[in-house]
Amino acid sequence: MILLVALGAIIAIQSYLQNRALSTGAVTYTITMKRAGVLFGILWGWLFFKETIIFRKILGIIIAIAGISIIIFSA
Prior knowledge:
The protein has four helices and no strands. The chain is mostly helical.
């Protein structure tokens, strides 16, 4: 039960911070950083859960990093 309460608090804080970032920062950068979290999920899965990274994941990572770079450096 304590774990669920803690998880709820973390999600509430995350939602607040995301909405705060969207209202104060450039939406392009904010959403880009939010979507970059998928890359960290792949990295954590590989490091801690020994998931295999197949070619499609590598290709997706390369495309995502290229897109993030274009958005960041085009400003």
